[in-house]
């Protein structure tokens, strides 16, 4: 199975004074390939809100509502350079 994702990446690193910075450090495209009996090695989360989010306007600080809550070190996602805190922009070019 192949999955392509374009990610706004912070490379999993935050500096105390730039945690709330308004820029994406890098944007990249990765192709994740895995066997049927394994996972991709990450936990994907979405934004939490008290009411439905009807419109979302991406910003440099928050380019998407979905982000990687955790990435298994050494897993499929980790090997492609994905890190905790990366944003999921697109899957399968859709």
From TrEMBL:
One of its GO terms (cellular component) is dendritic spine. It comes from the Eukaryota. SUPFAM superfamilies: PDZ domain-like. One of its GO terms (molecular function) is ionotropic glutamate receptor binding. Residues 29-94 form the PDZ domain. This is PDZ domain-containing protein. It comes from Chiloscyllium punctatum.
């Amino acid at each position: 199975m192949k999955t392509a994702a374009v990610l706004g990446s912070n490379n999993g690193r935050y500096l105390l004074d730039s945690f709330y910075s308004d820029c994406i450090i890098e944007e990249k495209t990765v192709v994740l390939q895995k066997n049927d009996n394994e996972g991709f090695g990450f936990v994907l989360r979405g934004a939490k809100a008290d009411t439905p989010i009807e419109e979302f306007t991406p910003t440099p600080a928050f380019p998407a509502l979905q982000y990687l809550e955790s990435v298994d070190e050494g897993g499929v996602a980790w090997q492609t350079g994905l890190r905790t805190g990366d944003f999921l922009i697109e899957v399968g070019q859709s």
